[in-house]
Structure formats: C-alpha cells, structure tokens
Write a structure and sequence with these properties.
The protein has 575 residues and is of the alpha/beta class. It folds into 4 domains: 8-158, DNA polymerase, domain 1 (Orthogonal Bundle); 163-251, Beta Polymerase, domain 2 (2-Layer Sandwich), CATH 3.30.460; 266-329, Beta Polymerase, domain 3; 344-573, Alpha-Beta Barrel (TIM Barrel). Helix content is 44%, strand content 14%. It has 25 helices and 18 strands. Helix 22 packs parallel to helix 23 and helix 23 crosses helix 24 (542-552). The structure holds one DNA strand of 29 nucleotides.
Length: 575
DNA sequence: GCCGTTTTCGGCCCGACTGTTTTCAGTCG
C-alpha cells in the first residue's frame, strides 16, 4: 500500500488523457469509453479510494461506464498511485497532451503532429514555434492555423475557467433581457450547462429565432458587455465578455427550434444516449429534427421530439446521460419541484450575528420575494468570529421576534438557530434555550479536519438530539472554494431517516447537498428543505439555485418541507 | 472498452465549419 492518496479528480484526468492519446492514434470507440468513465468519475461525490476501501472492486464495478478493464486500472491506481498502461503511453508520447489540447482548434491529432514534426511538448514550446513561423511550414497546416494557435493561447491565458452559476446566470439573464425586445425576435433562450443549472459554467450559449437576424447579431455583438467579437456570421456570433467569459448566439429556424434546443442544451452524454435510442427505434436525431426515413417527424418543440421517441419530456436539469432516458421510457420521471414553489426560508442570518440587516429588514425582503415565513438562524456562541448568540441573547432575540410577529401581516418569523455542533457532537446551546425555538437547525463550522468516522459519529450524535429538526449544509463544501469535510454521507442520510431530521439543500455558493445525495435521500424518503443561507436582503435569489440543485437531484415538491405553509411545515417537522 | 427490451458479440451520435485541400481530415458543440 502507498501513502499517496489518489483522488477522483486525478483518475478522471488520467482517463481523459488516455482518451486523447487513443484518439491521436485513431483508435476506434475506446476513447469514448474512457471519456464517459472520466465524466462519471468526476460526478461521483465519494472518493473511489474510499469506495474501494469499503467494498473493493464491487463498488467500482457498479459505476456506469466502468467495466472489468477499468476496474483493474482504478484498483492499480488506488493501490499504487500509478498506472502502467498510462505510463507506457506517456513514454511513447512525452508531451503535455492535456495542455496542448486545451487550446482551441488543437485536438489530439494536431497535438501529435506538432510533437512529431517540431518536438513541441508544452504550450510555451508551441508559442515560440508559432512566433517563429514554423507551424505554418508543416504540411497540412498554414498561416491561418498558426494565427489561430496564437489566438487560442492568448484566450487560454486570459480566461479563468469555470465559474459558479451564481455569478453567471444573472449576467446571462441580463443579456437575454436586452436582446428579447429587439424587433423580430420570437424566441431567445439560454442553453448549455446554464440551462441545466450545473454548479459551474464554462460559457454562455444563447439560441434565438428572429425574422431579422441581421439586427439581432448586430445588437448581440455590440452590447456594452462585449469586450471582443471573436466570430460573426449571418446566423452565428461568438464574443468575449468583459467579465471574462465567452458567449455565443445561434439563430435557428422556428421549425427546428425544439431539436436544436435539445442539441445545444446537452449534456453531450444525454444527446449521445438519445441518438442511440433513436437509432434503435429506426429513427435519426440531429439538431435539425427527428427523422424517420426521409421524413422529419418532430423538430419544433422539445416535447414533440421526446414524445415522438416514445419518451416523457425530460427536464434539462436531469439530462446528464445516466438513467433518465430509461426512466422516461417507462414514464417514471417524477414531476420535479417547480421554481417559485417555496413558501418559506429556514436559514436567514441577521445583524444579531454575521448578517448585515435587522430581523425586520430580512422579513420584509423575504415578503417582497413572495415568501410567507422565514426562520431566523443566527450563529451560536462558540462561533465567536460571527458574534454568535449565547443563551441570553437568543432569549432576547425571541422577544424581539414575538413583537415583530404582532406587527407583520400575512407573514411569520420563526425563532430558530444555526446551532453549532461541537467537536464531541454536543450542541452549542442548552436544551432550555433550544426549547424556546420553533425550529432547531444544526451544522458544523469548526474542527473540520476530523477523521471520517469520528466526523460521521459527531454529526449523527447531534441528529439524534430530540430537539433537532434540520441539518444544514451537510457536506461543508463551497463550490470552487473548498471541498467538504470527510464524512460518510450514506450513514448521514440513513440517520436523517431514522431520527426524522430534514437535510438542507443550501442554495448559496455552497450548493450543498450534492445532487447525488439529494437523489439518494429522496429515494429513501428523507425530507429536504431548500434554503438561501442569506446574510443580506438581496440573497433570497439563492433559493432558485437551491431549487435548481434539488431538481438535479430528482426532488419533487412533496420531498421539500418548505413548499408547505408555515403551519403545515411546523407540523411536518414534529418528532 | 463498455454494454444489453433486437445482442454476452457486435455494435458504438450527428452535422457544421475551417483550413487545407482537389475530395477531406480534424475539431467542436
């Protein structure tokens, strides 16, 4: 055994790189198998090294897209930290395949040619070769290719990778708003990963129909947000925005809009499965429509295309290329929780701890956001950095809430807390204090580096506490910022069921729970709440991101307790 | 290399665009 711990990230990256080498060698079918495996590994929440420790090869083999050969490779990686198959490829092709192919217009074959002809191994090698003009001298390449390479390197150096959806969606919606009022525009939609509500977004894809394409393209490319126009044609344009992302717009025929929407919404894996499914039904699906023989049978709307395939319409959030098509065939896709269906928010911080507004200000902001109740969940005493509440202040806060509730019409403020779970699993407030509250929520903020079993035990102990109703941001992660603590989420979900504790889907930049565990919880009948975790009046918009996350985890309205009225909610959390 | 409601063997997504070609390979979404 080795001390090197190999992460899923690393394994997926290795598989992606193997796929590229195989593509360069023109190997058929295998590259895709490695890519699918890599994609599936990335979306796992649990580390493969842990799964392997827990139940060996069996757990690995269950992952879709991973068969006998890849199980062995993962085993080798987990045990030794190395993979001979990969090392051999690397000996044969000692250049940075991943880096080179991250440049636009350079794929595996071009990268291999560059290595063979010019001994180019890195992006720096490539840059100096392009500047010297030696790329244009390679047969099959020319001056234009060389110029594109330089442009691609520039772009790569300037771009900052994938951003969390919270930052991107408002920008995209703002752009859509500016475009939809242009004369002639009949449809304009966000597609791609943004429409699927993925946690992080790489670029902004827009689709449109219009009777005046010229005008739309002109406006799109001259928006104040546009820093540089990268490409412009009669039906397509690509730009770079001032906020450092790339975006494009495609103008489509209204008669093909649905098929195109499916195609450009993705995911790629979903599209592949959908097309394979069409083939089995003796049909052919492309962005232009669903074709049988030479006849287009469906294209105008997404629903028509799915229906013509004999499938239930599949919501964008679950188009991931897993089991959604199989279930759509059996009409077993549940109605996912609708946006705008939350009536309350159970995690709201105020200026009593680390929020920036008063209880009343937060209540009015929530009311304005069409909510009818919120729970005030300021931190507790051991979180001194947030000015957490001790028992005395909590009781004072309760009095203030009582006063406020008398004043407010058609709105209720619940007395609550985000009570810290201490290292030993005990709570940061006494039972006497907790008893005065309408809702008791708990979470972990300290001693994050505990060993997995101990952390799991610590949390389960807190969940067992008879007064506890909700466990906040269960994994402790923040997207793009930090991973969660080590925890056995399966056990936490089972404990939630056993002790009647709801799990939070946190809509802030935590996006915690992960969609895999949301689905697992839903399947087990564990109840969820979706919260904004807002610390300021404008952040109730986080609720929508929470709903998006819950939808990606196949949650329905019935699974989410704060879709209920306040009285029904309070009744539902009772132990 | 994976997978199975036509299959444990024989399949494996589709079309547009670009740049380099003189009929197409490579990349992308």
């Amino acid at each position: 055994m080795t001390s090197t711990k190999i992460t899923n990230q690393k394994i997926a990256k290795l598989f992606d790189e193997i796929a590229l080498y195989l593509r360069a060698e023109n190997v058929q079918f295998k590259p895709q198998a490695y890519e699918i495996a890599a994609e599936n590994i990335i979306s796992l929440e649990e580390e493969l090294s842990d799964s392997y420790k827990k139940c060996g090869k069996k757990c690995i083999d269950e992952i879709p897209g991973i068969g006998k050969s890849m199980v062995e490779k993962i085993e080798e990686l987990v045990q030794t930290g190395r993979l001979k198959y990969y090392d051999d490829l690397k000996k044969k092709y000692p250049f940075d395949m991943l880096a080179l192919t991250s440049i636009q217009d350079i794929g595996p074959k071009t990268a291999l040619t560059l290595f063979k002809k010019l001994k180019i191994k890195t992006i720096d090698d490539l840059l100096s070769a392009a500047e010297k003009g030696s790329i244009a001298k390679i047969p099959s390449m020319g001056v234009k290719t060389q110029r594109n390479v330089l442009r691609g390197i520039q772009f790569l150096k300037a771009s900052s990778g994938r951003r969390i959806i919270h930052q991107v969606l408002p920008l995209a919606q703002n752009i859509v708003k500016k475009l939809q009022n242009i004369s002639g525009v009949t449809h304009i939609d966000i597609a791609g990963s943004l429409r699927r509500k993925k946690e992080t977004i790489g670029d902004i894809d827009l689709l449109a129909t219009t009777t005046n394409p010229k005008q739309l393209i002109k406006t799109f490319t001259s928006l104040p947000e546009v820093e540089q126009v990268l490409e412009v044609g009669p039906k397509k344009a690509m730009v770079r925005y001032t906020f450092g992302m790339q975006g494009d717009i495609l103008i489509l025929k209204p008669s093909e809009y649905g098929a195109a929407l499916i195609h450009f919404t993705g995911s790629k894996e979903h599209n592949i499965l959908l097309r394979e499914f069409a083939i089995k039904k003796k049909m052919k699906l492309s962005e232009h429509g669903l074709v049988h023989g030479k006849k287009i049978i469906a294209a105008k709307t997404e629903k028509q295309v799915y229906t013509a395939l004999g499938l239930q319409e599949i919501p964008p959030e679950i188009r991931v290329g897993a089991d959604e098509i199989k279930l759509a065939q059996k009409h077993k896709i549940p109605e996912l929780i609708p946006y705008d269906s939350l009536k309350g928010d159970l995690q709201v911080q105020t200026d009593w701890s680390d929020g920036d507004s008063s209880i009343e200000e937060m209540a009015l902001a929530a009311k304005n956001y069409r909510l009818s109740y919120i729970a005030i969940t300021d931190h507790t005493q051991s979180l001194t950095i947030t000015n957490g509440l001790n028992e005395k202040r909590l009781l004072e806060q309760g009095k203030e809430i009582d006063k406020l509730n008398k004043k407010l019409k058609n709105f209720r403020v619940l007395k609550s807390t985000e009570c810290d779970i201490k290292k030993d699993g005990s709570l940061d407030l006494s039972d006497r204090a907790l008893k005065t509250l309408d809702v008791v929520s708990v979470s972990v903020h300290s001693n994050r580096k505990m060993e997995k079993n101990a952390m799991t035990e610590r949390i389960i102990k807190a969940m067992k506490h008879p007064f506890v109703h909700i466990f906040f941001h269960p994994s402790g992660r923040i997207v793009n910022i930090r991973d969660g603590y080590e925890i056995e989420m399966d056990k936490i979900i089972k404990a939630a069921k056993e002790y009647h504790v709801a799990l939070e889907v946190n809509g802030s930049e935590r996006l915690d729970l992960h969609e895999k565990y949301i689905r697992q919880a839903v399947e087990l009948g564990v109840k969820l709440v979706i919260n904004s975790d807002c610390h300021t009046q404008t952040h109730f918009t986080n609720l929508d991101f929470g709903i998006g996350q819950a939808r990606r985890g196949w949650a329905t309205k019935a699974d989410v307790l704060n879709t209920k009225t306040v009285d029904a909610f309070l009744k539902a959390i009772k132990k």
